[in-house]
Design the sequence.
């Protein structure tokens, strides 16, 4: 794919095998840097043309994984030395992939990685070095990130670098190229994170980073990944049954000096987990006491499902989730379950929540099985409120629904699942189950109510596409026409459409539902009415609506020249011109079209084809023409009537005329006679 | 919507252009009966004429004779005129009388005798003068409607052609939609 400098403002071709990003960085795609790559983003040398000799590299994001745009923006503002920070970002024409890719340019760390990306076995670290070179710098970085309310969600040995060659100051690696927590091992995730699908874990909070830090400490102390030999399911089950600390530490000997830290960080209840301030005090040498988490209510007799005795509500939720929805539904509706919940477990809050789950009306397009799945999902939330929303095959944190939607769209998955999660109002139910009256939950509920309205609205600019762009503000436009052009900003939209028209990817309407939704989210000045015209029954109105929309984009964002798009509209202008009723106006418009097309301005073309003045004149003249035609018809009827009456009227008039002429002539004869005879 | 009132042509009196009612069955080809008012008017004319002739016969027999002979076309007109306004009489009689006037004056002033009447009547020019004017009146009566009909018909055709041409031009520019 050749680079199109004119179609991509802000980017020009680099010399050699590379591409230039924003007139500053030459990204060399023939110079990979395997040591700096992220799991889904290979790294390449990036030369700063302003500062030759500087050490930068570019991460080229996987187009099938939405990057964390919010994190990128905050990191650019933060400029922390303790975390990989983007210097420049943007889409580039990536020749090896024959498409545009999102590139993130960062400064190369002076030190190497703490461990290889896939290395579970690493050299054990001593207690002091671990605290001084790893824990303390990371805590400092987390403090910086916490000020920006930005959880890193990627703390693991393979994603930690050293700021110096002597490996004395650790720095956090990439947290931008993929959804939060995507590449975290189950071991490094809290129970809630581990229960969610990897791409839908959500950003969460710093508490999850601190949990991962605790696991990291444990990992580095032993040099082995905790719970190394267990399956993921078993690790989660162990964490739920025994608590994370005991499940992870297991039989490992923990130094006394770090025991307190690990107990504080590996608490499963986020409110009881150590906060950054607690660790700072611990680092300063103050002795800390472990916060008391509310005790987990255990039933005296376990509820048995397929031989598994569940003593806690959370464990029961885990086991129920493993059952098919129909089977789980049968269990939930059984008398045994009700008895166990109300009498054996005796947790009033859980009982109340389950009652709410049962009383919440389930409506599903999938019928009874869909209703059953919704009921199971709500009961799971009632049993285990902090756990992610588990619905059919999906398990997503509330703040991971956007990623679920985006990844599903990017990979061509079935959108019914995320759509049904929203339709069933499961996020709202989850928020209500968190038991806090914080404004944040209310705001989240209102947000999801709005998303549901958007989803149910089938007009262009709305629908599930709108929901995706609302929930993932940095998501690039996923229209099949322009997805390969990686349009994540409005200024890139029109050049991408122009490119697609040029490449014959677009041959009819250049604005589809994705593009309309993307524009609706990013450009608030666009009136909904204009978007509705995109599906108008009248082809001319559709063309005009599309043209007006793109003309607005050209006026606002450029580029000044869109020859292919103009020609496309030139071809589609016929039904628009046909709207004019006067044949002469149509001929004049058609004759003048070529000159307008040459001007390469969508605005001028739109004004030309959609001239209100011209339309008004045409309509007025048409009305006058109709009136005149009617008058002519009446005139013809009158003529027919006159012809019909001609004989009688002519006879009458003729006789009258004859009488008058006779009178005149007679008078003249009399006068002449009298005069001639000398009488007068 | 009812049809618009039929406009009158030229200075034709109101009511003159009204459509004639079809003749009742069994009267086809018969002369239409004269309206009573017209018949009264015609009788009044006859009475006046007869009285005038009687007065003349008492005092001026030569002139009375002259007029009896000269006004034969007018008498014929009285007989055949069935128009409501006695248009034929009003056309023929004035001309007939006007052409008789020189002879009557001459008779009155010169030789007011029956012989002189016969002298006049024996001259062909007298008959030509007297009956020529009447004949002109008859011709005028019958030709005037035809002339007017021809003129008006041409005017109507011009208007019709103009309207048709304009309608064609409108349809050419605006299409069949302009008819609706």
Sequence:
């Amino acid at each position: 794919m050749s680079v199109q400098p004119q179609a991509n403002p802000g980017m020009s071709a680099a010399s050699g095998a590379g591409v230039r990003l924003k007139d500053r960085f030459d990204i060399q795609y023939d110079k990979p840097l395997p040591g700096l790559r992220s799991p889904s983003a290979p790294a390449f040398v990036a030369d700063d043309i302003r500062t030759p000799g500087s050490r930068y590299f570019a991460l080229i994001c996987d187009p099938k994984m939405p990057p964390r745009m919010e994190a990128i923006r905050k990191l650019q503002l933060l400029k922390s030395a303790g975390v990989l920070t983007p210097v420049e970002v943007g889409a580039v024409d990536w020749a090896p992939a024959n498409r545009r890719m999102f590139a993130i340019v960062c400064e190369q760390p002076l030190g190497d990685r703490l461990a290889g990306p896939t290395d579970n076995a690493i050299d054990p670290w001593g207690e002091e070095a671990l605290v001084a070179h790893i824990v303390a710098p990371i805590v400092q970085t987390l403090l910086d990130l916490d000020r920006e309310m930005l959880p890193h969600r990627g703390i693991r040995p393979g994603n930690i670098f050293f700021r110096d060659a002597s490996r004395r100051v650790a720095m956090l690696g990439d947290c931008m190229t993929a959804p939060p927590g995507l590449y975290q091992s189950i071991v490094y995730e809290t129970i809630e994170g581990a229960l969610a699908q990897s791409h839908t874990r959500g950003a969460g909070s710093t508490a999850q980073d601190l949990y991962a830090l605790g696991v990291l400490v444990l990992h580095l102390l032993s040099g082995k990944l905790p719970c190394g030999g267990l399956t993921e399911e078993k690790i989660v089950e162990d964490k739920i049954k025994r608590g994370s600390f005991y499940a992870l530490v297991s039989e490992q000997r923990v130094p006394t000096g770090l025991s307190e830290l690990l107990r504080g960080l590996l608490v499963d209840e986020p409110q009881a987990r150590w906060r950054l301030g607690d660790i700072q005090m611990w680092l300063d040498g103050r002795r800390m006491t472990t916060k008391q988490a509310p005790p987990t209510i255990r039933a005296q007799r376990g509820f048995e499902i397929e031989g598994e005795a569940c003593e806690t509500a959370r464990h029961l939720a885990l086991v129920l989730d493993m059952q098919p929805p129909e089977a789980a539904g049968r269990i939930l509706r059984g008398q045994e379950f009700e008895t166990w919940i109300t009498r054996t477990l005796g947790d009033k809050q859980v009982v109340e929540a389950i009652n709410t789950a049962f009383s919440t009306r389930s409506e599903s397009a999938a019928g009874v099985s869909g209703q059953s799945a919704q009921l199971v999902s709500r009961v799971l939330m009632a049993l285990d409120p902090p756990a992610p929303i588990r619905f059919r095959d999906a398990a997503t944190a509330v703040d991971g629904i956007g990623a679920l939607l985006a990844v599903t769209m990017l990979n061509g998955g079935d959108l019914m699942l995320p759509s049904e999660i929203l339709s069933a109002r499961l996020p709202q139910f989850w928020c209500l189950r968190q038991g806090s009256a914080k404004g944040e939950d209310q705001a989240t509920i209102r947000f999801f109510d709005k998303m549901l309205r958007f989803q149910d609205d089938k007009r262009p600019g709305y629908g599930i596409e709108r929901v995706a762009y609302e929930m993932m503000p940095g998501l690039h436009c996923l229209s099949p026409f322009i997805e390969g052009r990686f349009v994540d900003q409005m200024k890139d939209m029109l050049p991408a459409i122009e490119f697609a028209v040029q490449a014959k990817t677009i041959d009819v309407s250049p604005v589809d539902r994705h593009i309309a939704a993307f524009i609706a989210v990013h450009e608030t000045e666009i009136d909904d009415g204009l978007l509705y015209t995109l599906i108008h029954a009248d082809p001319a109105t559709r063309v005009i609506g599309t043209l007006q929309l793109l003309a607005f984009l050209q006026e606002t964002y450029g580029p000044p020249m869109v020859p292919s798009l103009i020609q496309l509209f030139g071809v589609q202008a016929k039904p628009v011109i046909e709207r004019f009723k006067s044949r002469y106006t149509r001929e004049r418009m058609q004759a003048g079209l070529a000159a307008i097309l040459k001007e390469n301005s969508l605005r001028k073309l739109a004004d030309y084809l959609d001239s209100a003045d011209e339309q008004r004149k045409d309509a007025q003249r048409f009305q006058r023409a109709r009136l005149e035609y009617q008058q002519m018809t009446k005139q013809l009827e009158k003529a027919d009537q006159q012809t019909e009456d001609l004989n009688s009227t002519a006879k009458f008039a003729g006789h009258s005329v004859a009488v008058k002429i006779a009178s005149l002539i007679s008078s003249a004869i009399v006068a002449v006679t009298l005069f001639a005879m000398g009488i007068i | 919507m009812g049809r618009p009132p039929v406009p009158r042509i030229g200075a034709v009196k109101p009511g003159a252009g009204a459509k004639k009612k079809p003749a009742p069955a069994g009267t086809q080809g018969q002369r239409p009966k004269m309206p009573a008012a017209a018949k009264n008017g015609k009788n009044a004319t006859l009475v006046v004429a007869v009285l005038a002739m009687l007065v003349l016969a008492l005092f001026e027999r030569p002139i009375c004779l002259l007029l009896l002979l000269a006004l034969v076309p007018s008498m014929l007109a009285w007989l055949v005129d069935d128009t409501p306004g006695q248009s034929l009489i009003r056309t023929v009689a004035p001309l007939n009388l006007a052409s008789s006037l020189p002879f009557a004056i001459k008779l009155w002033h010169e030789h007011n005798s029956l012989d002189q009447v016969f002298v006049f009547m024996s001259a062909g020019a007298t008959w030509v003068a007297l009956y020529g004017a009447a004949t002109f009146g008859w011709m005028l009566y019958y030709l005037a409607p035809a002339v007017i009909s021809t003129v008006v018909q041409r005017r109507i055709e011009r208007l019709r052609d103009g309207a048709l041409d304009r309608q064609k031009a409108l349809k050419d520019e605006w299409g069949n939609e302009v008819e609706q």
In short: Residues 1-31 of chain B have pLDDT under 50 and may be disordered.
